[in-house]
Design a protein that fits this description.
- The chain has 259 residues and is mainly α.
- Helices cover 58% and strands 4% of the residues.
- Among the domains are: 85 residues, no CATH class; 66 residues, Orthogonal Bundle (Arc Repressor Mutant, subunit A).
- A hairpin with an 8-residue loop joins strand 2 and strand 3.
- It is elongated, with a radius of gyration of 53 Å.
- 11% of the residues are buried.
- It is found in: Cytoplasm.
Length: 259
């Protein structure tokens, strides 16, 4: 039988034996001892013909295979009693093969880890005495800086709290003077009025910003000669009247009405 394997790929007798079993696609728990022994001896003989120094381990395993083969060829001397199972001569060989495969898998795993480690570069250990010997000096300096920074933080926090006591944050409104002017013109038109009071433009939900914006819009409309305002007494309500648009202003008023 011609073998395509090379001698140097086998690291021992079990390595060769496992290769022959797997190459023949045999069940490891049902080894055809006669066939595998013939292949094994043929390979060992070929190694001798090639003037290869065959190790003793190969010869020992060859002898073990021959012994197992002989036992399996011998007829049973006595009938097997009921309930008693005769031991298979291959049992010990199977156990050794399984153990060999387990250690071989572990060896391959370790080899892979070794190859991965070879791809890593480690930083050489450096002398840190120049830093470790000055720990107390640096620690003392950091504490003073920390105390100074903490005092500065407390002063800033106190100043911010003082400011918050006297000021209130006012959110910017999206409404503009132009929008408020449109609202006032629409108010006159909606209620078909020619005269209204300033307080009628302020509803219950209006805040300070809305009141100021309404007043500013009213000033803008006075400047544009759209309305006239009268206040009959100090701090009294203001009376707002629509100014009849002159010919050249009617276009502008008309634009508001269309909106």
């Amino acid at each position: 039988m011609a073998y395509k394997v090379k001698i140097d790929i086998f690291e021992g007798p079990f390595d060769l034996l496992v290769y022959l079993i797997e190459n023949a696609e045999m069940n490891i728990y049902d080894i055809q001892v006669a066939e595998i022994t013939g292949q094994y001896l043929a390979y060992v003989e070929r190694m001798q013909e090639a003037d290869v120094n065959v190790a003793t381990e190969f010869m020992v395993l060859a002898a073990a295979l021959i012994e197992i083969k002989s036992k399996m060829l011998l007829p049973r001397s006595a009938p097997i009693e009921e309930g008693i199972v005769e031991e298979d001569p291959r049992t010990e060989l199977v156990e050794k093969i399984l153990e060999y495969k387990k250690f071989k898998a572990a060896a391959e795993l370790l080899e892979n880890h070794e190859n991965e480690k070879l791809l890593c570069f480690e930083k050489p250990k450096e002398d840190m005495d120049q830093y470790t010997n000055q720990v107390d000096e640096y620690l003392s300096l950091d504490i003073r800086q920390f105390v100074s920074a903490f005092n500065l933080f407390l002063r800033k926090k106190q100043r911010i709290e003082e400011v918050r006591k006297h000021y209130t944050r006012v959110e910017r409104q999206k409404q503009s003077i132009e929008m408020k002017v449109q609202f006032i013109v629409g108010f006159f038109k909606k209620h078909s009025l020619k005269k209204i009071l300033f307080k009628e433009l302020i509803n219950k939900e209006s805040d300070k910003y809305d009141v100021v914006l309404t007043f500013t819009s009213m000033l803008q409309m006075i400047r544009d000669k759209l309305i006239s305002v009268e206040q009959h007494r100090a701090f009294g309500d203001m009376e707002i009247k629509m100014v009849p648009p002159v010919k050249e202003d009617s276009v502008a008023i008309g634009e508001w009405d269309d909106n």
